[in-house]
Specification:
The protein is mostly beta strands. It has 1 helix and 8 strands, in the order αββββββββ. It has one domain (3-187): Porin. The chain has one helix spanning 3-16, and strands at residues 25-37, 42-55, 60-75, 79-97, 101-120, 138-157, 160-171, 176-187. Strand 7 and strand 8 form a beta hairpin. It is elongated and about 55 Å long.
Length: 189
């Protein structure tokens, strides 16, 4: 199933929901830097995210979101590396509210989709495939990763916050991702 289609369906259903049902609901849009490593590759790229959250207790929130961790093409005279990494996640966020904002931590689980291909300039399998694995030109796999995050939502207006965030994801096959991001959180209530 296409991750983008799922995210768009969730966002459209939220827009169609009336204001009463959206009490304690918020959305976050952000961008940042990601550093991804697996057994077969290491890459840094600009990342972005879309998150929807719901406060179910004074200090606890549940969040679901989409990350674009990497979408990069490294093209040189002899070979072309294409890397794409997306993730959808579900997490629980604990918050401590202060006078200027909210400090929070997040624990969650993510489904990370990684695609990596190495070809020569004509699109054929590159002779040097050791970067991708044993005799493979393409790597396309999903992995489950644990997620740990720490951040601060700085209040700039009623229902509007600037979000500073650092996250770490770790999964099977040596998957590690570190993410630093800046975003905007809007509370619908």
């Amino acid at each position: 199933m296409n991750v983008k289609a799922i995210v768009m369906a969730v966002l459209l259903s939220l827009i169609a929901t009336n204001a009463v049902a959206m009490a304690r609901l918020y959305a976050v849009v952000g961008a940042g830097y990601s550093d991804i490593e697996t057994n077969e590759l290491s890459e840094q790229d600009v990342s972005y995210r879309v998150v929807v959250g719901h406060q179910f207790h004074r200090q606890w929130h549940v969040e679901a979101g989409f990350y674009r961790l990497a979408d990069k093409i490294n093209d040189n005279q002899t070979r072309k590396d294409e890397i794409t990494a997306d993730a959808i996640y579900l997490g629980v966020t604990g918050k401590a509210t202060g006078s200027v904002g909210e400090l929070y931590y997040r624990l969650g689980v993510a489904n990370v989709s990684l695609q990596h291909s190495v070809t020569d300039n004509e699109g054929n399998c590159s002779g040097n495939t050791s970067d991708v694995g044993q005799n493979r030109c393409q790597y396309d796999d999903d992995t489950i990763a644990g997620l740990l995050g720490l951040g601060f939502d700085y209040a700039v207006a009623t229902n509007t916050f600037v979000r500073f965030e650092a996250e770490y994801l770790r999964g099977k096959d040596g998957f590690d991702a570190s993410i630093l991001s800046l975003g905007i959180r809007y509370d619908f209530n």
